[in-house]
Amino acid sequence: MPASPSTARAINDRLALRLLQREGPLTAGQLKQLTGLSRPTVADLVERLTASGLIEMVGESGAQRRGPNARLYGIVGDRAHLAALDVRLESVSVLVSDLVGRVLAEASVPIDADAGTGPAVEQAVALVERAVKEAGTGPTGPEATGVRGPESVREWGSLHTVGIGAPGLIDPATGELRNTTGLPAWHRSLVGALQERLPDARVVVENETNLAALAEMRDGAARDRDTFVLLWLDMGIGAAVVLDGALRRGASGGAGELGFLPVPGTRGLPSATDCEGGFHSLAGATAVLELARECGVLDIGGAGEPATAAQVVRWAVATAADVRAARFLDTLADRLALGVASVVALLDPGCVVLGGEVGQAGGEELAVRVAERIAGMSPLPVEVRPSVLGDTAVLRGALLTAQDGAQDDLFG
User: What global pTM score does this model have?
Assistant: First the structure.
């Protein structure tokens, strides 16, 4: 039974909007080519979507012959505003964007958890409020006045969607941050506080490593891959699993908790409440610093603040010809290969991305060393790549998640 005219129009509209989401601004001719629809049908849907305030002309394609098909149409960014948060153990970063991802404001603040849960939450919420006001988010949609500046700023609750990246496990049934041992109490309270302050906004929480993987797949090291694993190397250790283009969270939301993986070379076994003794004990930031001390590369700059794990790795990469630096990088690669080999044996992902601050600092130098070891340990082919997005990956992933959710809601 053929679709009714109204149903057909709705299907065509959704198809065009999806293409504009994925590809960015397109001409009517490009929409015709990508959708396979007739020229009159495309002209009708462009007129209809423009009249409804969903798309607008944003420029011209640069074609030599000017005409209707040379006009570029894009999604109306001011129809909704979004916020993305990267919540760390001792800091929060936020950015505010429009619906198409144009960043309007960014800010970050250290969080003193010792001050108590209430003050920590208020500090983080105030950061979001300041960023939204700085962005000057005014009325959105067809009723927008076009006025920018302080006089147009609405109540900051005008945000449509907030994407939050945080360490810890997310309950797949409720979408809530679970009460995980070792994480500050203000993390869970922050989510509730934002939802209370933003009753009309959709607040989405996701594990930071999962968000980093989504960002690397969309804009980073895994752009050409629909199956890969992101190994997160930072204060904590984790992994994000993407199979056939879909993020796999596991039955309880714990897929990729690689820090708890029992491995040789540690002083014991991990427990249900402590990953000490697991892969974390070999590859976490504290373990990397201990290794640097053993290899004689911990003091990389003389007096001053103690070096971080990422700084030590970055220095070792820059001076890889030095015997001590080479020994440090080789031993670190030996350790990382244990975790990567386990992932490869179980999932055969074909690609492993080294992310987090340590993975980013190691760059191609560390990735090559790990790949050489995996080639001798596993019959399965796998590429080992360094993160492209580095410490921006979580915030970028949170923004992409908010953007996708808002566009799905607004466009149907």
Answer: 0.86
CATH fold, domain 223-388, is: Nucleotidyltransferase; domain 5 (3.30.420)
Q: Give 77-106 pLDDT, tens digit per residue.
A: 888 899 999 998 889 999 999 988 889 999
Q: Which CATH architecture has domain 5-75?
A: Orthogonal Bundle (1.10)
Contacting residues for 242 by C-beta, under 8 A, at least 6 apart? 213, 214, 217, 222, 225, 226, 227, 228, 229, 230, 248, 349
CB 358 within 8 A of CB 309: yes
Distance CA 211, CA 316 (A): 28
26 neighbors 42 (Cβ within 8 angstroms): no
Output the six-digit token pair for 2.
Answer: 């053929």
Rounded to whole angstroms, how far apart are CA atoms 37 and 9? 11
Q: Cite the DSSP H helix spans in 236-284.
A: 280-283
Dist CA 203 CA 212 (whole Å): 18
Those residues whose C-beta lies under 8 Å from the C-beta of residue 67, and which sit 6 or more positions away, are none
**Which class does domain 79-210+395-411 fall in?**
alpha beta
